[in-house]
């Protein structure tokens, strides 16, 4: 890119005496033309040689290397995918959710059901049988518990004795175990660890399955025995190496630096003798297989052919340069004499201002001016409406109250106005319909609001200014004649009809301020229009509050008396919920009869709603702040008496709903019937708690109240009852009976028998036979 000379240096004395650089004169242009004319056949020949010989050899070498990369990457992907599938199958078939929900105490042995832990260890043993797996274990996030194939214990003992880690490495491991993981690899100086979270589709997992991969086995899988391959590695998008073989520490650092700088390319060189070949992993989209190639061995024929081409080209460069220089010098001599003669006809500050010959200077300079002016014009035109609206907003808010400062700023932003004119501010407070607000994107809301502003502008072109002082407040300034009586009211009525067309999106109130005759007084009209909004009633969705209010503000008491608050609390305690609703309906009916203002009515109703909520909190000991806040928001969005009535009926129905105690016993009877029919399947407490819309703890407590036993003990005793029948009435083996009654193996059934019967199933069968 050519560097432009700064304008202040162009007019310096002596600038005309400085000759333009020789490399930009017509002489060098002619030299370049002759030079290219001579070199075109040579360049074409070199290019053909590169395409027909060099590229063919390079492509063959790259293709062969690609075939080798494909073979070992597919093999490695298949084994890693098999390991991932095994981890998913283990987590899917495990009963980790039951372990997580098991009652907790001071030690793991007394906390969890032994049969669940035994089954988990058996699964981990099966996983460790994989050739790539060195060790597999479970890490519980919210419990002080670790489980591996041999034992289960707390985290401190496990990382101190079973799986020794220093404190820094343990903190690093625990810091990395956060968020959803689907076989993410965590690298360390000693091991490569694959992690998978459970439950799968949650950002806050409760258990992680960690598998230490045998580094030597993984390196053996990615090793390429070809002579030109000096090393291989698996690298993720962050340049972190999952595994490597044959790479020195210097190679590893250089490789990571190049990936962070240039990303992953199909192939590029690190040095003159070494190259890299990348291949995306089919197992993990963020992985790439990389092989470091000895280019000297792989590309030796290419280097020889390329050297010959470069020598051929260099020879003709020297010959062509000498011939071009001789021809250009002979042709440029008369042109230079003409150019020197024309210097006297130019102003001193024009000579040498720009680089290149005269034609280039004029063409470049004119194009530059046209481009700069066009961009600046477009930028200013695009920003002017925004700047003008901000300026006008500051006038309405009273930040500019001096006529001279307003006039000065208006000239800077090309804001034309008449200083002395009658103007009236209309404040439009609008609210979105809730259904529209929740289901519509921000872009759609902006487009709809822009369309609304455009329609208001067209009511009186050139006579209406609009700006938005708050997200829910729009100020509309109407300019009119001094003798035009009622003109602001007519504009307000037209705006009202515009908002009625958009009734499915907005509800609005239009406040009319008093008329002022100077632009610096507009803030007074704006403040008056804001005050008029407080006179809004509740009889229509779009209402106009004139400068002379037709509604007097009643002397309402905006707070409930102590007696009223105590009455509400007493009615809640005696379950007289209908009287609570009726008192609010009576209050609304009184306000409607007196035509009360919306703002005063909502102040009083807000105090009523607050008293209701405090009464419910004290009775149920439940606090749902987000929901209660939404109740106040819904009440404030109500624009009519009917909406307020419906709002409080809905709120009353939620806060003071009567519990259906009779149906709860029936529901628990159905749950017991389901347990009796499906005792051989997994019976998750989460499923039944979700069916009854209860938390797990609440369901467990309610189950014991209704049935008389804990949920876990009831299921265990019912299964043992069925197991006894099989033991006495059939000749089935212990393993078969355990499977039929819902246990994972004979050991689980034996432990349950010992816990509840005091003997083993075999002794029970022999003693009763």
UniProtKB/TrEMBL annotation:
The keyword DNA-binding applies. PROSITE patterns: HTH_ARAC_FAMILY_1, HTH_ARAC_FAMILY_2. Residues 669-767 form the HTH araC/xylS-type domain. Gene3D superfamilies: Homeodomain-like. InterPro entries: CdaR_GGDEF, Homeodomain-like_sf, HTH_AraC, HTH_AraC-typ_CS. One of its GO terms (molecular function) is DNA-binding transcription factor activity. The chain crosses the membrane at residues 31-54, 307-327. Keywords: DNA-binding, Membrane, Transcription, Transcription regulation, Transmembrane, Transmembrane helix. PANTHER family: ARAC-FAMILY TRANSCRIPTIONAL REGULATOR, HTH-TYPE TRANSCRIPTIONAL ACTIVATOR RHAS. This is AraC family transcriptional regulator. The lineage of its organism: Bacteria, Bacillati, Bacillota, Bacilli, Bacillales.
């Amino acid at each position: 890119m050519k560097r432009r000379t700064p304008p202040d240096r162009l007019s310096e004395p002596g600038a005309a005496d400085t000759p333009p650089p020789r490399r930009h004169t017509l002489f060098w242009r002619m030299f370049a033309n002759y030079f290219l004319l001579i070199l075109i056949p040579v360049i074409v020949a070199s290019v053909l040689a590169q395409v027909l010989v060099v590229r063919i050899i390079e492509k063959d070498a790259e293709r062969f290397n690609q075939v080798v990369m494909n073979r070992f990457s597919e093999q490695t992907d298949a084994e890693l995918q098999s390991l991932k599938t095994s981890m998913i199958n283990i987590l899917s078939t495990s009963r980790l959710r039951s372990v997580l929900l098991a009652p907790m105490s001071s030690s793991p042995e007394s906390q969890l059901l032994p049969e669940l832990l035994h089954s988990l260890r058996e699964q981990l043993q099966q996983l460790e049988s994989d050739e790539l797996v060195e060790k597999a274990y479970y890490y519980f996030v919210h419990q002080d518990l670790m489980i591996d194939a041999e034992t289960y214990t707390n985290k401190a003992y496990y990382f101190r004795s079973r799986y020794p880690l220093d404190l820094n490495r343990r903190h690093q491991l625990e810091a990395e175990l956060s968020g959803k993981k689907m076989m993410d690899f965590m690298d360390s100086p000693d091991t490569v660890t694959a992690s998978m979270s459970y439950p799968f589709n949650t950002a806050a997992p409760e258990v992680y399955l960690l598998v230490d991969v045998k580094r030597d086995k993984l390196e053996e899988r990615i090793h390429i025995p070809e002579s030109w391959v000096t090393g291989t590695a698996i690298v993720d998008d962050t340049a972190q190496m999952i595994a490597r073989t044959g790479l020195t520490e210097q190679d590893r650092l250089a490789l990571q630096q190049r990936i962070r700088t240039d990303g992953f390319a199909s192939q590029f060189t690190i040095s003159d003798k070494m190259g890299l070949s990348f291949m995306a992993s089919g197992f993990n989209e963020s992985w790439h297989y990389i092989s470091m190639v000895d280019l000297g061995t792989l590309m030796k024929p290419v280097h020889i052919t390329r050297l010959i081409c470069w020598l051929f080209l260099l020879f003709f460069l020297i010959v062509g340069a000498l011939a071009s220089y001789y021809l250009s010098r002979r042709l440029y001599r008369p042109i230079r004499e003409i150019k020197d003669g024309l210097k006297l006809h130019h102003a001193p500050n024009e000579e040498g201002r720009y680089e290149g010959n005269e034609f280039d200077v004029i063409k470049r300079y004119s194009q530059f001016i046209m481009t700069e002016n066009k961009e600046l014009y477009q930028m200013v035109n695009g920003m002017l409406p925004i700047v003008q609206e901000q300026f006008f907003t500051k006038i309405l808010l009273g930040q500019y109250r001096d006529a001279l400062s307003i006039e000065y700023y208006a000239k800077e932003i090309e804001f034309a106005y008449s200083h002395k004119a009658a103007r009236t501010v209309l404040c439009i407070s609008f609210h979105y319909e809730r259904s529209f607000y929740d289901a519509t994107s921000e872009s759609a809301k902006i487009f709809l609001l822009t369309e609304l502003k455009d329609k208001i502008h067209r009511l009186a072109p050139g006579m209406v200014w609009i700006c938005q002082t708050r997200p829910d407040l729009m100020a509309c300034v109407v300019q009119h004649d001094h003798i035009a009586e009622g003109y602001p009211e007519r504009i307000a009525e037209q705006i009202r009809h515009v908002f009625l067309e958009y009734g499915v999106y907005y509800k609005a109130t239009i406040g009319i301020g008093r008329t002022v005759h100077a632009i610096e007084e507009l803030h007074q009209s704006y403040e008056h229009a804001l005050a008029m909004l407080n006179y809004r009633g509740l009889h229509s969705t779009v209402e106009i509050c004139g400068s002379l209010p037709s509604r007097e503000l009643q002397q309402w008491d905006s707070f409930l008396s102590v007696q009223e608050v105590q009455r509400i609390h007493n009615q809640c305690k005696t379950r007289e919920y209908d009287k609570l609703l009726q008192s609010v309906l009576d209050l609304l009916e009184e306000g409607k009869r007196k035509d009360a203002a919306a703002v005063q009515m909502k102040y009083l109703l807000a105090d009523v709603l607050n008293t209701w909520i405090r009464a419910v909190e004290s009775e149920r000991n439940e606090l749902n702040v987000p929901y209660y806040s939404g109740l106040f928001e819904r009440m404030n969005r109500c624009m009519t008496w009917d909406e307020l009535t419906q709002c409080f009926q809905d709120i009353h129905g939620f806060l003071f709903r009567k519990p259906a105690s009779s149906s709860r016993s029936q529901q628990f009877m159905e749950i017991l019937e389901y347990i009796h029919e499906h005792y051989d399947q997994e019976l998750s407490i989460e499923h039944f708690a979700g069916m009854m819309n209860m938390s797990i703890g609440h369901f467990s407590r309610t189950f014991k109240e209704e049935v008389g036993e804990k949920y876990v003990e009831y299921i265990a005793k019912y299964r043992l009852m069925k197991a006894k029948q099989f033991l006495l009435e059939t000749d089935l083996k212990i393993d078969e009976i355990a499977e039929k009654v819902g246990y994972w193996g004979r050991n689980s059934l034996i432990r349950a028998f010992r816990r509840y019967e005091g003997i083993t199933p075999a002794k029970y069968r022999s003693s009763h036979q």
